[in-house]
Each structure stands twice: as structure tokens, then as C-alpha cells.
């Protein structure tokens, strides 16, 4: 066949780059085969609809289109995360070209695994800087904590009624838990006691802590439904029980603060084969997903929230996520977040076996 006889839109179908054509009201005029694959849609379903109603991850594309409208020229963004497939976003380079007054061409190329690894290493190295700060804070907490515990013990000895000791016991127990956390944060000088840990025992512990907070009215947020979706066949991971409890608790508390009354949080566990965390390949990893149906986190804030002191709550410290990330990264794991309105997933990846074990 002569080249000039070929329908140009057929050539688009051969590309590995996803191509979309939209009009000035961001209605989809055409999607090529690669775009159908990337977004897991069929051309028939989406042509005629707006980006926002047709595709997951459209928020980013709309943002970039607005950018070209401002500048008038083609616009490229590299290594953006696009939440298109399952729970794991893909990293893409995206170019937007106005092709006429009324039409915009969108090209999306998936960048290789390398970009994902760079991003994960960046998350972890950013975390090392954060560690320094957290260690400073931990020292500040450690000193008064000893005094607090001692005073509670003295008070307990003075109390006439046995059942009043319940209160001093709460102080002592919580002081001990804080002490352990502080010790963990002060590591690596205080090495974690690593042992085989059943992740479902960890999740059940978190669940009962959160339910108890609800029952005692101590929670800063309304009660929510806590659902379980466990894969009971997951073997134990090597970790320190208390560290994992703290990490999961921080994520579940955030989820609860984000969901309104009647919200739902799901605790889900799965394994995944052949998975790379930062630059290390693993034959088998465990994933713990904390899923909530709250309003979500805007795309451009999804990495910022792992920095300390980043908080959207007046009473927040902005330390929950960095602490959780540092506890998990010590086990060779990683916490990631994927969020859209109505569905936010925080995933803890924990290595079980390394490729060269
Ligand atoms: N599940 C979630 N849904 C919506 N926003 C969240 C969620 N988890 C975390 N965030 C956002 O991340 C911020 C940082 O969380 P965190 O580090 O735990 O600090 P804090 O809870 O003290 O604000 C929160 O203030 C909130 O804006
Ligand atoms: Mg928090």
C-alpha cells in the first residue's frame, strides 16, 4: 500500500504513545489504541464525553491543558504520576499541543521502571533528612516522659481506692508506649527487635485501639466503620510488632480524620510477587492497604504530606506520616499513597524475601 493511501488515524493506532484529541470544552474526539490500553477504556465508551467523566487521572491532563491555554504553546511535563491503573499510578511524560483554536492534542508516554525507582529513592532519601529532625524531637520528648511515669507511680501508691488505679495505669501504659516509640525514633542506635510478625495481629491491634478510642469518646473524629479484607495465607514478616502497630495506627487515624460520619475504612492485606521496592527486587512482598472513602488528597500534595509539619488540620502535627514512613523504611519497606475524591489508599509495602536471598 502506498503511504498516501493510508488513513492517518490508522498510523496513530500503531503508536506506543497514548494520544488523545479533545475539543475546547475538553470533550474527547479521539483516543488511540495505546490510550485505550493505558486508561483501560474503549474508544466507544469515551468519545463524546469530557475527560473528567471518562478517565481516571484526568485531573492532571486538565491542569496541563489550562497551562497551555495560559501560555498558548505546547507544554510538556515529565515524570508526573497518573493514577490510571489499579492502585498503582504510572509515571508518565505528558505533552499537550494546541493543534487549532478548538483542538488540543495530548500525548502520554509511560516512562520506564527506572523513573519509578528514582522517585522511590527520592522519597526515602527525603525521609533520611526528616529522620534527623524527628530524632531531635524524640530527645525532647524522652526526658519529661520519665518524670511523668515516675509521678504516676508515686500517685498510684497514694491512691486509697483500687479502681482509681485504672487511671494511673493508663498514664503508665501510654508513657511506656511513647517511650518505646521514642526509642524507635532515636534509632539506629537503638536497634529494633526484629521478629516474625503476623501482620493480621498488627491490624487487629490497631483496630481494637481505634475502636477503644471511639468508645471512650477520645477520638478527634466521629466513629467510622472499620472493615477487614485479609488474605489469611500471608506468612509472617520480619519486623518489630510495636513499630508496625504505630505505623498502621498513624495511617488509620488519618483516614478516620478524613472520613466524615458514616465513612468507611477498609484494612486490606495482599501479597505480590516479583516486586521492586526502591531499587531492591523482591520475590514476594506483603502489602497492607488502608482505604478510606473520604474527600482525598489533591494530586500535587500527595508527596508533600510525607514531609514533617505538613498538615491541613489545625490541631495536626504533620508528624504522623513521616514517622510511619521512617518506621517502615527501616524494614526495607515503603509507604505510598494514591488518592482521588471518595477513595484514598495508603499502601505499606513490606519485603518478605529478597531476590538474592
Ligand atoms: N487518608 C487521608 N485522607 C485525606 N488526607 C489525608 C489522609 N492522610 C493524610 N492526609 C493529609 O496529610 C496530612 C499529614 O498527615 P500527618 O503526617 O499524619 O499529620 P497530621 O495528621 O498531624 O496532620 C494531613 O493533615 C492531611 O491533610
Ligand atoms: Mg496524622
TrEMBL record:
It comes from the Bacteria. Its EC number is 2.7.13.3. It catalyses: ATP + protein L-histidine = ADP + protein N-phospho-L-histidine. It is an enzyme of class 2 (transferase). Residues 136-354 form the Histidine kinase domain. Residues 4-51 form the PAS domain. The keyword Nucleotide-binding applies. This is Sensory histidine kinase/phosphatase NtrB. It comes from Halorhodospira halophila (strain DSM 244 / SL1) (Ectothiorhodospira halophila (strain DSM 244 / SL1)). The lineage of its organism: Bacteria, Pseudomonadati, Pseudomonadota, Gammaproteobacteria, Chromatiales.
Amino acid at each position: 500500500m502506498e503511504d498516501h493511501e493510508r488513513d492517518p488515524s490508522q498510523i496513530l493506532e500503531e503508536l506506543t504513545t497514548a494520544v488523545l484529541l479533545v475539543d475546547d470544552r475538553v470533550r474527547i474526539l479521539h483516543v488511540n489504541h495505546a490510550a485505550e490500553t493505558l486508561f483501560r477504556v474503549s474508544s466507544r465508551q469515551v468519545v463524546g464525553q469530557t475527560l473528567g467523566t471518562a478517565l481516571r487521572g484526568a485531573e492532571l491532563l486538565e491542569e496541563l491543558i489550562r497551562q497551555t491555554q495560559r501560555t498558548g504553546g505546547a507544554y510538556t511535563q515529565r515524570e508526573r504520576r497518573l493514577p490510571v491503573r489499579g492502585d498503582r499510578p504510572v509515571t508518565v511524560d505528558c505533552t499537550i499541543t494546541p493543534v487549532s483554536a478548538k483542538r488540543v492534542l495530548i500525548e502520554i508516554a509511560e516512562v520506564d521502571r527506572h523513573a519509578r525507582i528514582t522517585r522511590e529513592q527520592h522519597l526515602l532519601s527525603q525521609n533520611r533528612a526528616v529522620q534527623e529532625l524527628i530524632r531531635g524531637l524524640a530527645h525532647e520528648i524522652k526526658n519529661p516522659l520519665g518524670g511523668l511515669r515516675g509521678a504516676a507511680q508515686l500517685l498510684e501508691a497514694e491512691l486509697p481506692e483500687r479502681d482509681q488505679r485504672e487511671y494511673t495505669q493508663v498514664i503508665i501504659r501510654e508513657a511506656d508506649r511513647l517511650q518505646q516509640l521514642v526509642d524507635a525514633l532515636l534509632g539506629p542506635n537503638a536497634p529494633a527487635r526484629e521478629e516474625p510478625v503476623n501482620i493480621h495481629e498488627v491490624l487487629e491491634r490497631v483496630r481494637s485501639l481505634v475502636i477503644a478510642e471511639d468508645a471512650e469518646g477520645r477520638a478527634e473524629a466521629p466513629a467510622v466503620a472499620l472493615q477487614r479484607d485479609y488474605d489469611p495465607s500471608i506468612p509472617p514478616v520480619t519486623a518489630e510488632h510495636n513499630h508496625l502497630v504505630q505505623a498502621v495506627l498513624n495511617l488509620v487515624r488519618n483516614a478516620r480524620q478524613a472520613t466524615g460520619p458514616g465513612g468507611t475504612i477498609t484494612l486490606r492485606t495482599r501479597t505480590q510477587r516479583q516486586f521492586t521496592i526502591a531499587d531492591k527486587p523482591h520475590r514476594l512482598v506483603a502489602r497492607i492497604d488502608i482505604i478510606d472513602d473520604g474527600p482525598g488528597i489533591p494530586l500535587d500534595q500527595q508527596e508533600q504530606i510525607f514531609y514533617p509539619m505538613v498538615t491541613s488540620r489545625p490541631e495536626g502535627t504533620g508528624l504522623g506520616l513521616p514517622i510511619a514512613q521512617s518506621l517502615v523504611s527501616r524494614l526495607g519497606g515503603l509507604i505510598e499513597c494514591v488518592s482521588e475524591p471518595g477513595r484514598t489508599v495508603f499502601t505499606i509495602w513490606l519485603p518478605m524475601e529478597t531476590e538474592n536471598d
